[in-house]
Amino acid sequence: MIAGIGLSIGGPAMQKAVVGLVPRTAVGSASGLYNLFRLLGGAVGVPVSVMAFYWLGGMANPTQLTHGFVAAMATAGILSFLGALPLSRISNE
Q1: CA–CA gap between residue 56 and residue 53 (Å, rounded)
Q2: What confidence tens digit (pLDDT) does each residue in 42-72 have?
Q3: Which of 20, 35, 60, 72 is spaced 20 to 30 Å from 11 by Cα?
Q4: What are the transmembrane regions (predicted)?
Q5: Closest listed residue to residue 55, CA positions, set 70, 77, 40
């Protein structure tokens, strides 16, 4: 629930940052691409994290559950970092 609240608060700021980087004539395209990649990230990130949960853990006992949870969170963090790497190439000139 806390992560959902954080994403809801941060979402509009992220969209404004993306749209603010482009000329006024390209705002529609920037907004569309932002939403495309946001949804694509969710559609890929969730299944990959679930696969990590079951490959490295499971639901059979508390120990497996803990290992699976750690694996899923680490996978989500790695995917977030990989998704942020292209941002280092954008300059706000």
Answers
A1: 6
A2: 889 899 999 999 999 999 999 999 999 999 9
A3: 72
A4: 36-56, 68-87
A5: 70
